[in-house]
Structures are given as C-alpha cells and as structure tokens.
Amino acid sequence: MSIAQWVEACAAEEIEVEDVIRFDYGDRTFAIYRTENSKYYASDGYCTHEPVHLADGLVMGDVIECPKHNGRFDIPTGAAKRRPVCIALKTYPVKIEEGKVLIQID
C-alpha cells in the first residue's frame, strides 16, 4: 500500500481561469484545472472513454469536455456528465501553498 504525498504540480498563475494543463509525474499523468471561480482541482489526465488527454479539452465552469468525442466530466467530483463518457474520473485533493499548486498523489 502506497502512502499519499503532496507533489508540486505548477505555479498557480500558470493556469488561466477556466483552463486546464497537463502534469506528468513518474509514469502517471494528470490534468490540473482552474475553474471560473479560480478554484483548483486535479484528476487523472486521460479521458475514461479513450486515452485522450484532457489537457487538450475545454473547461466550461465546473465541467471539462474531452477533445475527442465531447464527453463531459464534473471537475470537482470527476462524475461523468455526458456520453460517451460513463466512467467517472479519479480526482485528487489540491491545495495552494506559497503560490504553488500541490496535488495529493497516492
């Protein structure tokens, strides 16, 4: 069993409001989001429908739209919101410290 750790993903200012960036750590990839109300979130990087990176998708409020087939996920919860997506995204805790976005990876 692995122990969760906080990992620095990026500077908070690197992500525009209503945007998403890719963050790779080891052999894993994540999507880091900043929603319209400037809250930060993190999820697995690939869509659960096909292995397309969500960093190329469109953030609309609290929703990320996959660039491949336009499936949508709720950013805060990872819940599948529109077909063809039917499996939720795994999400990760996020905190901001000293202007840096940190995600908790297990």
From TrEMBL:
InterPro entries: MocE_2FeS (IPR012747), Rieske_2Fe-2S (IPR017941), Rieske_2Fe-2S_sf (IPR036922). Pfam families: Rieske (PF00355). Residues 7-103 form the Rieske domain. CDD domains: Rieske_RO_ferredoxin. Gene3D superfamilies: Rieske [2Fe-2S] iron-sulphur domain. The keyword Iron applies. Keywords: 2Fe-2S, Dioxygenase, Iron, Iron-sulfur, Metal-binding, Oxidoreductase. The keyword Acyltransferase does not apply. GO terms for molecular function: 2 iron, 2 sulfur cluster binding; dioxygenase activity; metal ion binding; monooxygenase activity; oxidoreductase activity, acting on paired donors, with incorporation or reduction of molecular oxygen. It comes from the Bacteria. Its cofactor is [2Fe-2S] cluster. NCBIfam families: MocE_fam_FeS. Belongs to the bacterial ring-hydroxylating dioxygenase ferredoxin component family. This is Naphthalene dioxygenase ferredoxin.
